TrEMBL record:
SMART domains, sorted: FtsA (SM00842)
Predominant cellular place of this UniProt entry's protein: membrane
PANTHER family: CELL DIVISION PROTEIN FTSA (PTHR32432:SF4), CELL DIVISION PROTEIN FTSA-RELATED (PTHR32432)
Source organism: Lactiplantibacillus plantarum WJL
Skewed-composition ranges (Low complexity): 400-425
Protein's recorded name: Cell division protein FtsA
Keyword ATP-binding included in the entry's annotation: no
Amino acid sequence: MDNSGIYVGLDIGTTSIKVIVAERVKGQMNVIGVGSARSNGLSRGVIVDIDKAAETIRSAVRQAEEKASIEIKKVIAGVPANLVKIERCRGMIAVADESKEINNEDVQNVAAAALVQSLPPEREVLDVIPDEFVVDGFDGIKDPRGMVGVRLEMHGTLFTGPKTIIHNTRKALEKAGLQIEQIVIAPLALSSLVLNDGEQDFGSIIIDMGGGQTTAAVIHDHQLKYTYVDQEGGQYITKDISVVLNTSIENAEKLKRDYGYADAQQASDDELFPVDVVGQSTPEQISEQYLAEIIEARLDQIFDKVKQHLDEIRALELPGGIVLTGGVAALPGITDLAAQRFGTRVRVFTPNQMGLRHPSFDEALAVIKYQAALSEVTLLVKSALTGDTRASVALEFADTTPAPSQPAAQPKKATKKQSAPQAPQEQADPDHKGTVERVKGFFNHFFD
């Protein structure tokens, strides 16, 4: 499958909204336009003022349009992991084709059957990922199309979230003159960008340190298994600096960006810089180390909360360690500080594309890569979210057309809710027995 074409990723963050336009040609993703605007109308990663958010989105989109020399109509939007629930789903149908050969429509129908869930009125299906198909009792099948059978099953992972978050996102984009091509859960997209194949397989933790919140996500067996959101982020660090140094929020943000260190041990007590203090006519001289102590105190609090929740499910035993993303991850010394607090290997992911070499661009780039990497059968499954099982999804499109996808919507039917995902049964390669035992212990504790 050649997913060539233009992809537009949108990251609606608490402190900034970013738009990235990329062109995929022969498997190569080339960024051709970037837009960024200071957020307005958001709080803790969620849109709270639709009109203000729409205006900021329009501003960021216009910048990207000018740089890419295209008109943007559709975007792939990342949504935060706030209150996301991860559930197992399964569906089963009789193959409709008289020849008993499984086709696109059968895949859509079995996906629609798997989406039949009993959801509370305030929740909505965000995404569905097929884990495997079963044809007449033969499991482990990734793509059943073309196979012969009379009974088709699909086992998958279902993600649901608050209707308010999704509605506000859709409404803001609509007011900005845009359509949603795909809604992507941010941690799920980030895993495809910041983790290699082995880290996704054996297990890793992604900690997205944004302006309004910090999100920890556990990835194992290429699946999102767990999320935790701490409602503290870069804005709290800025407020701490403002309060302690008695300076404005604007000055505090500038101090954090220009002189800030996450680890006070790495800052210098001899390096001084001026700080405009409210009520004083002349600036005060503050040391680099004193500023770092303020920043480190807040980071310690965030890391302690995240660690407490990760310890409860023994996630820190996973061999992939921790990958930090988001704007706060750009603070010098944060890797060493996080490694000390979590007691595991830590690294920061920074995109290597020109003009995007800052971890704050990770999510916007991730949703593009995630969408471009979707297989045909996954796109068919996702199309069932619209409720239109008759659609062929036009998978036989021209090579120059971007990969199709459909916006998420709540299924119309309802049955009993499924339980939490179970631990994968397969073990890793024998050369990794020690690692496997630790991973096995983690999942036995978490999923039992």
